[in-house]
TrEMBL record:
Keywords: Transcription, Transcription regulation. The keyword Transcription regulation applies. The lineage of its organism: Bacteria, Bacillati, Bacillota, Bacilli, Bacillales. SUPFAM superfamilies: NosL/MerB-like (SSF160387), Winged helix' DNA-binding domain (SSF46785). PROSITE patterns: HTH_DEOR_2 (PS51000). It comes from the Bacteria. Residues 3-58 form the HTH deoR-type domain. This is HTH-type transcriptional repressor YcnK. InterPro entries: DeoR_HTH, N2O_reductase_NosL, WH-like_DNA-bd_sf, WH_DNA-bd_sf. It holds the Pfam family HTH_DeoR. The keyword Transcription applies. SMART domains: HTH_DEOR.
Length: 191
């Protein structure tokens, strides 16, 4: 059984039983306790599960309004939201490309799709195929550093001529926003 399959089985057991001891998991999966610890490490980092004195259990679910950004917890009133769809078909709503890129970086191994809106056309596009304009002199009163998305390189560059900034591709934009956040794990959104 692959690690991802073991994690899926583990989550199923936790949903059914609430909590499990590491030794019990080891026995059920027929793997060493060290393997169990390696398997659960990403789930703990993503706050899907928590360690308890007797083993592990599912992390308590924080109730977040459907109109709230899952990353910065701001009210979703932006006209350029991002959606992340995970392999298990959960949909996460994010207020802007800034939060979308940071959240994607945190959970990319679980992401099936990431979609956003073209800034000018307001059409849905694949975030991985989009062009990102950062540091433009154009304030949308959203998360900083601000990021705008475009389906067309030509339109991104035309917007850049008028408002400045730098045009980046998906992976470059993730790297750049991470640098700009100076290693902080949260965003600098005004809530």
């Amino acid at each position: 059984m692959l690690p991802i399959e073991r994690r899926q089985q583990l989550l199923k057991w936790l949903n059914d039983e609430g909590s499990l001891a590491i030794s019990e998991i080891s026995s059920r999966l027929q793997v060493s306790e060290m393997t169990v610890y390696r398997d659960i490490k990403p789930l703990i980092q993503e706050e899907v599960i928590i360690k308890t004195s007797g083993g592990i259990s599912l992390a308590p679910i924080t109730k977040v309004s459907p109109n709230t950004c899952i990353y910065c917890l701001k009210e979703m009133n932006s006209r350029h939201p991002v959606q992340i769809i995970t392999h298990d078909l959960k949909v996460e709503q994010l207020c802007c490309p800034h939060c979308g890129l940071l959240r994607y970086k945190d959970i990319k191994q679980h992401v099936s799709q990431i979609i956003c809106r073209d800034f000018l056309q307001n059409s849905t596009i694949s975030a991985k195929m989009a062009y990102y304009l950062m540091d433009a002199d154009f304030n949308l009163n959203c998360c900083q550093p601000q990021v705008l998305t475009f389906e067309s390189l030509k339109q991104a560059e035309q917007f850049q001529k008028g408002f400045g900034g730098v045009v980046l591709r998906f992976e470059e934009a993730i790297e750049e926003i991470q640098k700009k956040m100076n290693g902080f794990t949260g965003c600098s959104c005004e809530k």
